[in-house]
Amino acid sequence: MTHPRTRLERGRNVLGPALELVHTGRAPTRAVLTTELGVTRATAGAVAAELQSLGLITVDARPGAVAGGQGRPSHRLAIADEGPVALAAQVHADGFRAALVGLGGRIVATAPACVAVAADPAEVIGDVVRAGARLLAETGRRCVGAGLAVPSAVAEPDGTALNPLHLDWPAGAPVRDIFNDCLAAAGIHAAGHCGNDVNLAALAEHRHGAGRGADHLLCVATGHRGVGGALVVDGRLHTGSAGLALEVGHLTVDPQGRPCHCGSRGCLDVETDPLALLEAAGSRPGPQGSLLDQARDLVTGRYPHDPAVRAAAGTVIDRLGLGLAALVNILNPDRIILGGLHGTLLAADPDRLGAVVGDHSLWGRSGDIPITPCVLGHNSLVGAAELAWQPVLDDPLAALAG
């Protein structure tokens, strides 16, 4: 005799999609989950209960009405407060930081930032992993995986950092292998993943921040040095055939401009990053604080009343606008988000940047493309955690077995 499958058996293939809906905030109640998954209420209930049993979400035992909603009250769904975490690490030109990040992009704990980066990638990555290991020991949280954000294109499938231009690392450093070796040495039995910092910032903003709801999201951002870009299409990063797509920092915006590390001149990387702004404003970089913080402080503190700062910011905004216009012509995004110094410049003079993009792009004249700042703190860390969470989102039961 053939027994009909249980509701949970029928719903196992939607456990991952269900978790992703809660993870990204698109299913705040079981009723919404039912609708989004296209299953029966009973199946959605069984799926939610299974995710709760895995310690990933909580299901409100007493249904409550959503403010302004209609129909019967529904059980609320939320990320489990004491659920597992991913270890996230970021290395940049001015230091590194480790954090623990739960579902929903929530930063659970962070280690103090370090402001020195050694020339040996194994030394730096070992330090940041040990900082993460201390956080795990202090919190007692289960670790589902680890992600590392680096200021370089990361070639796939090898996981090598091809051009860490603003670090003293050798080109082609096997950062993913080093990361996994350091995790094992620290006693962290979890897979390590690695990606470009702006790619990961874009992924985090698309799932949890300023990029929510965009189908074709373009992100352009400064790091502490340099400029990077990323494209998220239909919820997935577009990384090209080998993980090297969207190296927008080496888009020329002034052929007679500053020499770039890549061998060209006038690239976004050297015309619109924090050092470019400081130099244009005649402000000598100081020993205290990162270049990014110094440039942001210059704009927020002196832009309204200092002609030299306004002129320097205007020049950088114009160069950025030319680069964005070229990217709009090529990629036709439906939203642009700006991070790092670029987000600060947008806030200082949004009309100027929008006008430059509109005047120099074909599609900018025919349709209004929203340009907004990134909104997540430490979005590259959150994005690094997304890499670690992805296997759980794909198949929660397989990822958390045992």
Give the gist of this structure.
It holds the Pfam family ROK. With 402 residues, the chain is of the alpha/beta class.
How is this fold's topology laid out?
Blueprint: H1 7-11, H2 15-23, H3 30-37, H4 41-53, E1 57-59, E2 77-79, E3 85-92, E4 95-101, E5 107-110, H5 121-139, E6 143-150, E7 154-155, E8 160-161, H6 175-185, E9 192-196, H7 197-208, E10 216-222, E11 227-233, E12 236-237, H8 268-271, H9 274-280, H10 291-302, H11 307-331, E13 335-339, H12 341-348, H13 350-360, H14 362-366, E14 371-373, H15 379-394, H16 396-400
Parallel strand pairs: 3-6, 6-9, 10-13, 13-14
Antiparallel strand pairs: 1-2, 3-4, 4-5, 7-8, 10-11, 11-12
Helix pairs in contact: 3-4, 5-6, 7-15, 9-10, 9-11, 10-12, 11-13, 12-13
Task: Give the overall average pLDDT.
Answer: 90
Spans with pLDDT under 50 lasting ≥5 residues? none
Q: Could you give me the name of the CATH homologous superfamily of the largest domain?
A: ATPase, nucleotide binding domain
Which CATH architecture of the largest domain is right?
A: 2-Layer Sandwich
Biggest beta-sheet profile = 5 strands, mixed
What does this structure look like?
The protein has 402 residues and is an alpha/beta fold. The chain has 3 domains: 7-79, Winged helix-like DNA-binding domain superfamily/Winged helix DNA-binding domain (Arc Repressor Mutant, subunit A, Orthogonal Bundle), CATH 1.10.10.10; 85-199 and 379-400, Nucleotidyltransferase, domain 5 (2-Layer Sandwich), CATH 3.30.420; 212-373, Nucleotidyltransferase, domain 5, CATH 3.30.420. It has helices at residues 7-11, 15-23, 30-37, 41-53, 121-139, 175-185, 197-208, 268-271, 274-280, 291-302, 307-331, 341-348, 350-360, 362-366, 379-394, 396-400, and strands spanning 57-59, 77-79, 85-92, 95-101, 107-110, 143-150, 154-155, 160-161, 192-196, 216-222, 227-233, 236-237, 335-339, 371-373. The longest helix has 25 residues, at 307-331. The two termini are 32 Å apart.
